[in-house]
Amino acid sequence: MALVNLSVEAAVATITLDSPQNRNALSAALMDELDAHLTAVAGDDAVRAVVLTHTGPTFCAGADLREAADGGMERGTVRLLGLLRKIIELPVPVLAHLRGNARAGGLGLVGAADLAVAPAATSFAFSEVRLGLAPAIISLTTLPRLDPRAASRYFLTGEEFDGAEAERIGLLTMTGDGVEGADAAAAHLLSGLRLASRQGLTATKGLLNAALAERVAADGDAVVRLSATLFGSEEAAEGMAAFKERRPPRWVEATKG
Length: 257
Fold this sequence. Notes:
Elements: E1 4-9, E2 12-17, H1 28-42, E3 49-54, E4 58-60, H2 65-69, H3 73-89, E5 94-97, E6 101-103, H4 105-112, E7 115-119, E8 123-125, H5 139-142, H6 148-157, E9 161-162, H7 163-169, E10 174-176, H8 178-194, H9 198-231, H10 234-245, H11 250-253
Parallel strand pairs: 2-3, 3-5, 4-6, 5-7, 6-8, 7-10
Antiparallel strand pairs: 1-2, 8-9
């Protein structure tokens, strides 16, 4: 069964992450399908906008930790970087339409999108530090969006924050009251995009994303190496094992009296 689905209607392509059983985690298979759909959309001159959305209560939980535990993340880090670059360089705007929570790598997708909406009560977290990791690759797309002090807080603590806070610090464009409110916010933004020409949207997106594209090109290889090194470390292995076993990792236990 497909893990990612594509439909096109009224000049808008909708790409839906459809792997709710693992919270739409970024498995190799899911990323391959997402990449293929983005490529197809890029070549469709009738499309003026892309909506990236999901089934299930979670937009995207980040890396597939089962694959990471099997030592498969080196290729995964390269693949994720390629996906973020493709979203940034897609000729038309991408709207991340969240109806549920996002974690880690899922926030990288949100940061790569040109516009993003979610319910105000949605939960977000840069959870990498609590697993012995760092938000290395996704820092490329999220740091340019975020208030610097907020980035320091949420990158370093891994604590959760809601959609209202995500809008305040720049991760989201708009929030709504519940799922219906987020749907209304998405519809409002799409109505504006449908009034624009593809040429105008493409040229304007290029202006907006020029610095972001340069950042990804300049720093991409370095953050891929950092991410792969961290995923292959003993500390990350402990963090992922603790997460899987629903227990505190040993560095948390060591702080207890």
